[in-house]
Automatic annotation (TrEMBL):
SMART domains: NDK. It comes from Eleutherodactylus coqui (Puerto Rican coqui). ATP binds at residues 455, 502, 530, 536, 550, 560. One of its GO terms (molecular function) is nucleoside diphosphate kinase activity. Belongs to the NDK family. One of its GO terms (biological process) is CTP biosynthetic process. This is Thioredoxin domain-containing protein. The active site is at residues 278, 429, 563.
Length: 600
């Protein structure tokens, strides 16, 4: 589409030290995507940056891409596979974000821009930071322990496999993109390393294939350029190897394209030898390959676990009817000012039964009838809040549950500030602990499964872009199938539109080429997918939802790129029609979700 040309001017290109020094003298916030020459900058964040720039229209916010290989100041970033974004203001480093984490990037940009305005306008002292990960790496390198025979390569009970992004995929700049897809599919990358194998190393690594006809060609290919070597795991005790091999697809790329079109080899490979990805066949091979590439993996794993322990926490917040009606915006502003991100929100009307289910441990309390009456007197707003130590931070911000205590002991707390004097029930709720927070979030935002389709013209022209946006929005693709609808199938699929003037035209359009059918899973999946699609009419979408799929990729009301179920019942019907009873039952069992409360 025409908007693509904006990529050329959105991010300033920095190729040498002189240009880097010039960038440091610029005014405002500069967000720098640091990349390696062999893989290129992170493309998946460009649309996010464009959206933020267009929405804010602020000259103090600028974006750049910087090639670490040719800039002395970025020497320590060379050889890193993880996308890294450095935030500079007044020549100083003020923030670092690793990974193409869209919500975190947006939050950091907005926070740093606001802070820099206070620095420039009110003389606030700039908060200069150091890249802690680089400092930690230096400390680890200087104190790396010697591995002994007693060292465990991975924690007890954790399944792992070794993966290699091969030279062909690396040479075409696909390494970061593949790593993103691996993480979005739910795999955990315990360690990664850029590695160029010598012919001798490649021959040793593949010695079990020495009898094959193309062995020498394989050795030469694997030693022809840099690879990315990863240790892949997954949360839980399941054996990750079968799931990983399913994810990368058949060795033969042509077979992969026919049988597993969504697999990595189907998307990035070109032939059997140049099939983009390697994966261990079994645990014994994984163990041998781990020792080959990562003889000191134990210390690297410990560092990974320490980093994981800093993962932001989630908690549930409820804004009850009286405050929601009169002071919603003030409460939301207080939440934002306290540094929380709102991951999900839903305004709903609860039934008495739902209140009793949610507050079942309070049923015998004297105050419960008043609480139930309050909770059913109007709509409430449920929020999933995200922040480090979110549960404790939110409860501290709320103050005591008892209003008298809140007013006397914590007059600045939210409950003291926002509860009307005429009520005895405080107007804000927070989870007691992490376990309760997850249960309560699941109560209001259960994992759902919805049905989604990429229509023929969009599949042909924009498949990769749409798939990237689906995964960036946090959806899990539970099932996927590329199929060409017959006229009979299309008529049954769209039977609710039979008799309408556009029905025949719709059927002909849907039958003219293959569609991509998917089961998408996520908390609030039906609503979230419909929001990502945007309005049916792309003209309306471009006005009200400019970043939606239909705004970006649709041609008309009929040819509007994507389809999605309007409610859970319709989603289950379409899933059953395309994927059958087994997949529908599997999806329902995996979620274990209560019926949707969207109509409550």
């Amino acid at each position: 589409m025409a908007g693509k040309k904006k990529d050329l001017v959105l991010q300033v290109t920095i190729n040498n030290q002189e240009q880097w020094d010039e960038m440091l003298s610029s005014k405002g916030i500069m967000v720098v995507d640091v990349y390696q020459a062999w893989c290129g900058p992170c493309k998946t964040t460009v649309s996010l940056f464009r959206k933020i720039k267009n929405e804010l229209g602020d000259d103090l916010l600028q974006f750049a891409v910087a090639e670490a290989d040719n800039i002395d100041a970025l020497e320590k970033y060379r050889g890193k596979c993880e996308p890294t974004f450095l935030f500079y203001a007044g020549g100083d480093l003020v923030a670092v974000v690793r990974g193409a984490n869209a919500p975190l990037l947006q939050k950091t940009i907005l926070e740093q821009l606001e802070t820099e305005k206070k620095v420039l306008n009110h003389g606030l002292e700039r908060n200069v930071v150091k890249d802690e990960s680089l400092l930690e790496e230096d400390e680890e390198t200087s104190s790396l322990p010697t591995q002994t025979e007693d060292d465990e390569l991975v924690p007890s009970g954790k399944s792992y496999t070794v993966a290699i992004i091969k030279p062909d995929a690396v040479a075409h700049g696909k390494a970061d993109e593949i790593i993103m897809k691996i993480q979005e599919a739910g795999f955990e990358i315990l360690a990664s390393e850029e590695r160029s194998m010598t012919e001798s190393e490649a021959r040793d690594f593949y010695k079990h294939r020495a009898g094959e006809e193309k062995f020498q060609e394989l050795v030469q290919f694997m030693s022809s350029g840099p690879c990315h070597v990863l240790i892949i795991s997954k949360l839980g005790d399941e054996d990750v190897i079968p799931e990983w091999r399913e994810f990368i697809g058949p060795t033969d790329v042509e077979v992969a394209k026919k049988e597993k079109p969504e697999s990595l080899r189907a998307q990035y490979g070109t032939e059997v030898l140049y099939n983009a990805i390697h994966g261990s066949n079994d645990r014994e091979q994984a163990s041998r390959e781990l020792a080959f590439f990562f003889p000191n993996f134990k210390s690297q794993q410990q560092h990974t676990e320490e980093s994981a322990s800093r993962t932001p926490e989630r908690t549930l917040a409820l804004i009850r009817p009286d405050v929601l009606k009169d002071r919603k915006d003030e409460v939301l502003q207080s939440i934002q000012d306290a540094g929380f991100s709102i991951a999900m929100q839903k305004e709903i009307m609860l039934t008495e039964q739902q209140v009793e289910d949610f507050y079942k441990e309070h049923l015998d309390q004297e105050y419960f009838p008043a609480l139930k009456q309050q909770m059913t007197s109007g709509p409430i707003l449920a929020l999933a809040l995200v922040k480090d130590h979110a549960v404790t931070q939110w409860r501290n911000l709320l103050g005591p549950a008892d209003l008298t205590k809140a007013l006397n002991e914590a007059p600045d707390s939210l409950r003291a500030r926002f509860t009307p004097k005429e009520t005895a029930i405080n107007q804000l709720h927070g989870s007691l602990n992490s376990a309760e927070a997850e249960n309560e979030i699941n109560f209001f935002f259960p994992v759902e499964h919805t049905f989604a389709t990429i229509k023929p013209d969009a599949l042909e022209e924009h498949r990769d872009e749409i798939m990237e946006r689906i995964q960036a929005a946090g959806f899990t693709i539970s099932q996927i199938k590329e199929t060409r609808l017959s006229q009979e199938m299309a008529e049954e699929f769209y039977k609710e539109h039979k008799g309408k003037p556009f029905f025949d035209q719709l059927i002909n359009y849907m039958c003219r080429g293959p569609c991509l059918m998917m089961i998408l899973s996520k908390e609030n999946a039906v609503q979230e997918w419909r929001a990502l699609m945007g309005p049916t009419d792309p003209t309306e979408a471009q006005t009200s939802s400019p970043d939606s799929l239909r705004s970006l990729f649709a041609n008309s009301v009929l040819q509007n790129a994507v389809h999605g179920s309007s409610n859970l019942n319709q989603a289950q019907e379409k899933i059953k029609f395309i994927f059958g009873d087994i997949e529908l039952e599997k999806a329902n069992n995996e979620s274990g979700a209560e019926p949707s409360q969207e109509n409550s």
